[in-house]
Amino acid sequence: MGGLAWRGYAAFGLMVVGAYWFVPGGIPEDVVYVALGLSGVLAIGVGIARNRPIRRLPWILMMLGQLSWVIGDGVDSWSSDVEHSDAFPAPADAFYLAAYPVLAVGLILLIRGRRPRRDVAGLLDSATLTAGLGVLSWVLLARPTLDTSEQSVAAAVVGIAYPVADILLVGLLIRLVTTSGGRTPAFRLLFAAVALLIAGDSTSAGLSLWSSSQTNAFDTIWLASYVAWGAAALHPTMRELSEPTPGDDLRFSRARLAALAAASLIAPGTLIVQDLIGARVDVWAVGAGSVVLFLLVVARMNVAITQISAANRERARLQDNLAYQAAHDSLTDLPNRSQALEVIQAALSRGQRTGRMVGLLFADLDGFKAVNDTFGHAAGDVVLCTVADRMKAEVRAGDIVARLGGDEFVVVLEQFDAETDAVQIATRLVDCAAEPIPLTAGRSARVGASIGLAISQDGSTDPERLLAEADTAVYRAKAAGRGRVEVFDSALRRELADRGELEAALVTAIENDELVLHYQPIVDLESGEVRGYEALVRWNRPGHGLVGPNEFIPTAEASSLICDIDAWVLNAATAQLAEWSAAGSTARTIAVNISGRHVSSPRVVEDVRAALEASGLPAGRLTLEITETVFIEDVLATHHLQLLRELGTRVSIDDFGTGYSSIARLQQLPVDVIKIDRSFLDTSQESSRALLELMIHAAHAFGLPVVVEGVEHAHQLDTLRTLNCEAVQGYYLSHPLPADEAGRCVVTP
Ligand code: C2E
Ligand code: MG
Ligand code: MG
């Protein structure tokens, strides 16, 4: 609809403009001219009514301006073709000249609508271009007009009013194109309309000055301007023409710079040209133009410098912000881990200079996970922030509290003389963390803190080491019953050293192939057949004999070393089952233990895929044993397990029943098998037996088969049979055996 109106009008208008050449001169020509002009005015009116722009005033003013022009046309035609007068100035000039300011105000309002923010730079740029063209216009049009109209002052004034008004329009046209915003069809049409108007004015003025021929050729340019203006108002996009558009102030493009340079060179350029061709040099006009241009350029420089320094200030502020964010924890606003290490380093350096002690308190909250589970993460955040605030309030000025991540905090202590001082502060922190923490809706949470203290006597320790010492002390505080302070002492130092040694030895163990796998059969309770094996790692440690996993797996789990061990086991175990199958074994599956840390790491999926690929074992024959706590603590782990199941491998919950997860959650976990911990086989206790029964029933209710591990006695087998347990594993059936023995193993339950 909207498209039809403006297209129709534009086509009609252009046709009339074309036909105008063939209309007989005099009154017929006048009639067509005035009629087309009026149609333009009418088109703007219709455009306003149909398109309903939010800002109507600019368009109404433009319509009135055009109307004034058309009236001028009518009056002019009357005087020239009816009264046959060619007086100058004529009454028509009053209407013509009145139109310019009205149109200009309309355009100004339109531009202001597009660019509501103050844009001094843009204004100055437009003013510079306009002033440059103004000098040109003065030299080429206004001055010669003045020179030729010696007869009357009125003729002179009206004569130069036209070029001056056109310069005003040129300025607005420049302003229109230099503001950002959509170059919609309405925009282009309006631009064309104003440009045609200026072109018509200037060429007709120029020609009447520089040649004696009387021609109406320029009428068509003005007519085209009427048509373009009307079509612009009819186009539906005129609605957005006066809407604000986003734009930046700092656009100082090459094109803009070139235009500004050219404009400011017009004045001196004119002087040179006038001098070269021997024309009269208009010193005053060109001089005044130069002064104006010069001042504008200086003002523009000033604006640019202000903008640049404002941008620099902003950048510096952003950099400060970024640096702060990089060094601080966003939740508690405390220094974060990396910043904490720097603070510790700085304190140690000072300690080294002054010979004073530096203390590091490592606080780990007790019961924080329970708060998160019970009250949700928002409450967990409140707890962390409250504890952080309390700790800050409790330490002395100069002592720095930082958050390492999760529920771990450190405090760096400097000004103290004896270990007991530091212990005292730590005890105060334990007490303040234990106070109830109010949550929303009248509820409150309770956590505690276990704190480890490590002291560097003379600042010679390195920060990572001090942190590791304090961490070791926390570990003991936790083990000794939580809510207490432990000091890193010589016994712990020995422990830490052992751990370091063990880690180093494990790295070489993997490289030197010192790990071995033992296999424990998993037996079908009904048929008594070996349905599969669990692979259990051992370490043939030189000088130590065969070392069990409990002695090195926990240490390996402190770093990514555990992932390397698991990957090694995956490869060896899948290859072993493939080998057994090739030799005719009926065992279907191999179960491999995967540590929580490995499951949380994205490499787990690739490690499993690589092992399956290398061994050629179908994915369905590999079972991954994951301990129950992993499912509760880690969303990432759960996601990886889903990917692994998509791969085809089966997932088993290991040591089920020891991880405190509710049985009801079983349904949502990405698992295929439940492996119940051996602690529930203690059938001497009635409660264990009841729990065992409950867990097996629950697993069956969710369609999951059950393996019970740690079967050591025949009567346990009987119990499990009555409970319809699917499979069993334990010393009663077979100990974990080296590969060659396990391959030959036949069990009789
Ligand atoms: P788990 O996965 O629960 O493995 C079962 C553990 O119970 C094994 O101990 C096994 O020897 C033992 N066991 C089997 N039947 C009986 C029984 O009738 N009575 C008793 N008292 N114990 C029995 P092991 O081999 O010392 O492994 C201990 C733990 O070390 C494993 O517990 C597992 O969590 C971890 N582990 C073993 N191998 C690996 C491994 O390759 N990767 C990882 N990440 N962890 C492993
Ligand atoms: Mg296991
Ligand atoms: Mg187990």
What do these coordinates show?
- It is built from 26 helices and 17 strands.
- It is α/β, with parallel strands linked by helices.
- The chain folds into three domains: 254 residues; 152 residues, 2-Layer Sandwich (Alpha-Beta Plaits), CATH 3.30.70.270; 242 residues, EAL domain (TIM Barrel, Alpha-Beta Barrel), CATH 3.20.20.450.
- Strands 8-9-11-12-13-14-15-16 form an eight-stranded mixed β-barrel.
- The two termini are 88 Å apart.
- One magnesium ion (MG) binds next to loops.
Keywords:
61% helix; 17 strands; binds magnesium ion; Alpha-Beta Plaits; 749 residues; single chain
Which ligands, by name, code or SMILES, are bound? ligand C2E, magnesium ion
Domain module count: 3
The largest pleated sheet is described as:
8 strands, mixed, barrel
Based on helices, strands and strand pairing, what is the structural class? alpha/beta
- Mean pLDDT, nearest integer? 90
Topology:
Blueprint: H1 2-20, H2 27-51, H3 57-82, H4 91-114, H5 120-148, H6 153-178, H7 185-210, H8 217-234, H9 238-241, H10 254-277, H11 283-327, H12 337-354, E1 358-366, H13 368-375, H14 377-394, E2 400-405, E3 408-413, H15 419-434, E4 437-438, E5 444-445, E6 448-456, H16 463-479, E7 485-487, H17 490-511, E8 515-524, E9 530-541, E10 545-547, H18 553-556, H19 561-582, E11 589-593, H20 596-600, H21 603-615, E12 622-627, H22 628-633, H23 635-647, E13 650-656, E14 673-676, H24 686-701, E15 706-709, H25 714-722, E16 727-729, E17 737-738, H26 739-744
Helix pairs in contact: 1-2, 1-8, 2-3, 2-8, 3-4, 4-6, 5-6, 5-7, 5-10, 5-11, 6-7, 7-8, 10-11, 13-14, 14-15, 17-19, 19-21, 21-23
One magnesium ion is lined by residues 654-655, 675, 709.
